Automatic annotation (TrEMBL):
This is ABC-2 type transporter domain-containing protein. It comes from Corynebacterium sp. L2-79-05. The chain crosses the membrane at residues 20-40, 60-87, 99-123, 135-158, 170-195, 215-238. Keywords: Membrane, Plasmid, Transmembrane, Transmembrane helix. It comes from the Bacteria.
């Protein structure tokens, strides 16, 4: 497993797009905060809080899915997966190592990006206001992003397609669930859809969820598709030969 992790780290660091994605992921966290300070309007007074940072993370969320789907599908189509089958004892180790390295890369970019955003917020005219719930919200958002990244990675393994692994999760989040929430007949199931469940979990962390709402239903609604796709992707990776 150590060799698999080392190989994936080297592979990630040698890919030209890694630096581009790192700049985009970090920039989307700090850039909007800097822009808010530049175009500051006294008519909209108020300090920057976790909710404002969350808007930045929503951009990070989409970019993270693009990164995971693109990187995984491209590596498979380039033959890197086939090479790992020849050089490593266990097939599952290469996929687990790749997912772990992706998680670590995204977590690092997230911490750096949010850290720079917090520094930039200190120079905002109305300052920065972070509560304990705000920190919990940012931590929960990272977990939500990583679960969606897992789904994108699994789709890349299952389909070997950059387009499907990137477009499917983003379309589901930004279009399908939004349309489903507008249909009265689907009102009973919309809370169990993964993107809506993600927002419920974040509302719980921020203390903005309705009174009496349990954290378990949205957690289950998000974990089930993530674990289901991850399991299917791992089985396909182990059983199917690379093209």
């Amino acid at each position: 497993m150590t060799r698999a992790l080392t190989a994936e780290v080297r592979r990630l660091l040698t890919v030209r797009s890694t630096g581009i994605f790192a700049a985009l992921l970090i920039g989307c966290c700090v850039g909007p905060i800097v822009l808010m300070g530049i175009v500051y309007d006294p008519a909209y007074r108020g300090p920057i809080d976790a909710g404002d940072l969350g808007k930045c993370v929503s951009i990070f969320h989409v970019l993270a899915i693009v990164f995971a789907g693109t990187h995984t599908a491209t590596e498979i189509n380039a033959g890197s997966t086939a090479l790992s089958f020849l050089t490593q004892k266990s097939r599952w180790a290469s996929l687990v190592a790749q997912a772990a390295v992706q998680w670590a890369f995204l977590a690092f970019a997230y911490v750096v990006g949010i850290g720079l955003a917090l520094v930039a917020a200190r120079f905002y005219p109305d300052g920065l206001a972070m509560s304990p719930r705000g920190w919990a919200y940012l931590a929960a958002y990272l977990l939500v992003v990583l679960l969606w990244v897992t789904m994108a990675t699994a789709l890349a393994v299952l389909t070997r397609s950059v387009a499907v692994s990137v477009a499917a999760p983003i379309t589901w989040m930004l279009l399908i669930e939004q349309l489903a929430s507008m249909v009265p007949m689907l009102e009973a199931i919309t809370p169990w859809l993964p993107f809506n469940a993600s927002h419920m979990l974040l509302a719980q962390a921020l203390g903005e969820a309705p009174a009496g709402m349990s954290v378990w239903p949205p957690a289950v609604a998000l974990l089930v598709p993530a674990l289901g796709l991850a399991g299917a992707g791992l089985c396909a990776h182990v059983r199917r030969d690379s093209a």
